[in-house]
Amino acid sequence: MKTLWQNLTREVPGPFMAALLLGAAFCGFVTWDQSHWWSHKEDYSFGWLVPMFVGYVVFDRWVAIKAAAAACVVPHSPRVRGWRKAVLVLAIVGFLLCGALLFLLGAFYRAGAGPSYPGTLAITMGTAGLLFGLLLVNAPESPSPVAGGWFEDARLKLVALFIFPVMIWFVSAPMVSVVENQVSLFLLHKVVTVVSFVFDMLGMPVEQQGNVLVLPTGRVGVADACSGIRSLTACLFAGSFLSAVFLNRFWKKVLLVAISMLFAFCTNLLRGLFLTAWAYHHGPEAIEGTVHDVAGYAVLGLTVVGLLCLLPLFNLRLASEEDLATADDS
Q: Where are the domains positioned within the chain?
């Protein structure tokens, strides 16, 4: 055991490695807690992939993590100073205190009431706060640090490598029912309204009665499952994972995540139009069962394929004037 610890701390300083192992234990608890919802809510069944993808991202970034940890201990390693340092200290204290409070609150709530939305959300939020606080507190120190800005601080650069492994658990945790219902109703209303408008424009009369579309062949009720909340959460997870693995700029990561949500909404609209057209020609009963399920999975597939096709565009780097000058000289 001692030899294993020595091998681990040979690459990463001991306190930071201990923080990583403790963080892995907290993530294990979150996995156990959220697995109830992954098993019982089809909208969150993708959550079973989260622990594996988190492990893969940490493994994929391990060389970068070692390099960032080494950059923290070298002489003249940048650190924030003045009011920036005070803000960082307050953030660390807030992460640790609020994280511990929320984690304990969620754990006691789960122990008393069993699996619940508020308990899972509190555990997830508490774990995120504790992990960020522990990583910042245990980040390696430099013998002679120098002043630097937010984006120069070596400790913040090191902790930034763990944003995806920490924050992705919020995507796999079910939202509080009030928030989830409001988002679902909003998306559902948009889907029904757009479908009704498109069919009217095409000269195919459709009457909208709430969440029910009245077709010449019968009535089609648009259920909450067709709102797109399932594809939205799953595509948000896919976009977050792809951006964490394949993109190296923060603005690119944010943009790809935003595009993944836009893709999810647009492809779900296409699904609604397809199912309504199918019901228009073959009757409402024809869209039940296989046709409905295949259309739902096609939404996820199209979004993932679209995101994969965008990755080469995001990674395209135009030649700079310096590159062109070098090419001309050669």
A: 2-173, 178-313
CA-atom Rg of the chain in angstroms: 24
| Residues whose CB falls within 8 Å of the CB of residue 308, separated by 6 or more in sequence, listed in order | 242
Q: What share of the chain is helix, strand, coil (3-state, %, to 5)?
A: 75, 5, 20
pTM, two decimal places: 0.79
Going by the DSSP 8-state scheme, the letter that residue 176 receives in this structure is P
Cβ–Cβ < 8 Å for 83, 151: no
Residue 17's alpha-carbon distances to 26, 98, 244, in angstroms, are 14, 23, 22
* Distance, CA of 127 to CA of 37 (rounded, Å): 18
Lookup: tokens for 146: 């120098």
Q: Which two tokens stand for residue 173?
A: 């945790």
What per-residue confidence (pLDDT) applies to 227? 56
Under 8 Å between Cβ of 161 and 68: yes
| Cβ atoms of residues 257 and 217 within 8 Å | no
Chain-centroid distance of CA 115 in Å reads 22
Order of strands across the sheet that contains 207-209: 207-209, 212-215, 218-221
Q: Provide the CA 104 distance to its chain's centre, in angstroms.
A: 24
Q: Which amino acid is at 187?
A: L
H or E segment to which residue 193 belongs: helix 177-201
Q: Give residue 283's pLDDT.
A: 73
Instruction: Tell me which residue of 252, 276, 253, 265 sits closest to 303, measured CA to CA.
Output: 265
10-18 contacts at long range (C-beta below 8 A, 24 or more positions apart)? 11/66, 12/65, 12/66, 12/69, 13/69, 13/73, 13/140, 15/138, 15/140, 16/69, 16/135, 16/138, 16/139, 16/140, 16/158, 18/138
Q: What's the rounded Cα separation, in Å, for the pair 101 and 184? A: 30
**pLDDT score at 328:** 47
Regions of the chain where pLDDT drops below 50: 224, 318-330
